[in-house]
Structures are given as C-alpha cells and as structure tokens.
Amino acid sequence: MKKILIVDDSMTSRLLFKTYFPKDYTATIEEANSCETALAKAKELNPDMIFLDYNMPGRHGIDIAQALIDAGITAKLILCTANLQAKVVDTAKKLGFSAIMEKPITTERIISVLGQDNI
Q1: Are 64 and 6 a contacting pair, CB within 8 Å?
Q2: From the centroid of its chain, how far is CA 88?
Q3: Which pLDDT tens digit goes with each residue over 61-109?
Q4: Number of domains within the chain
Q5: 29 - beta bridge partners?
Q6: Who has the most CB within 10 Å: 11, 18, 76, 106?
Q7: b/e burial code for range 12-23 (CB count within 10 A of at least 16 → b)
Q8: What is the pTM (predicted TM-score) of this model?
Q9: Helical H runs in the chain?
Q10: What is the tens place of the pLDDT at every residue in 2-16?
Q11: Residue 85: DSSP 8-state
C-alpha cells in the first residue's frame, strides 16, 4: 500500500484532495499544514509520494521540497499549483519534482499524475 503525504495550509484543499482521490487506488493518506509538520511527518512515515502546495504562508512548496531533500527524504514530489508560470515549472523540474499537478484539484488530475511512468 502506497503512503501519501499531502502538504497544504488549506484544510479545504486537503479535504478535497482526499475526497477526489481515486477510490480504486489503495493508499494511506496523511496530511501536513506547514513545512515543519511536513518534515516531521515525512521522517516518521517515509511516504512514497508527497503532494506539495506551491503557495503557502512563510515557505512555498519549492522551499519545503528543498528542506525535505536536505533531510534525506526520497519520496516522489508532486507540486500542486495554479501558478504554471515557466519560472515556477522550471524551478520545480530542476529541483527534481516528479510531476506538477494544476489546481484546482480534480479526480482526473490526480489520476493523470498517478498514471505517469515516473510516479
């Protein structure tokens, strides 16, 4: 069973992610609402995938990804954002994100990411 960590400051976004997650995909889904919580949960859970919101207070998803990488976390990183500007996408790819999922979150977008060969 896959272990997934959702990192988003919005409780509504985390709830929508869990609601829209495909029912036929077996996974344990945990949540974090900040960089600090994400680091602690990632170390504890050793997730297979981490879905990171880009726009969070204090530190955005790319900063959090760097902190996770620096901590030795090897999970696949998926950036969730409505900001698909070339600079954001290029920075995410250079850092090693496995995928970028456009917001708003939908079941189809989650399925598309889960179906990628590198996930």
Answers
A1: no
A2: 15
A3: 999 999 999 999 999 999 999 989 999 999 999 999 999 999 999 999 9
A4: 1
A5: 4
A6: 76
A7: ebbebbeebbee
A8: 0.95
A9: 11-20, 35-45, 61-70, 86-95, 107-114
A10: 999 999 999 999 999
A11: -
Q: What is the pLDDT, as a whole number, of residue 59? A: 87
- Domain at 7, CATH number: 3.40.50.2300
Q: 57-87 burial, b for 16+ CB within 10 Å, e for fewer?
A: eeebbbebbebbeeeebebbbbbbbeeeeee
The residue range of the domain holding 44 is: 2-114
CA-closest candidate to residue 20, choices 101, 117, 113, 111: 111
Quick one: angle between helices 86-95 and 61-70, nearest 10? 10
Contact between 32 and 38 (Cβ < 8 Å)? yes
C-alpha–C-alpha distance, residues 27 and 97, integer Å? 20
Inside any domain, residue 119: no
* 25 in a structural domain: yes
pLDDT at site 118: 86
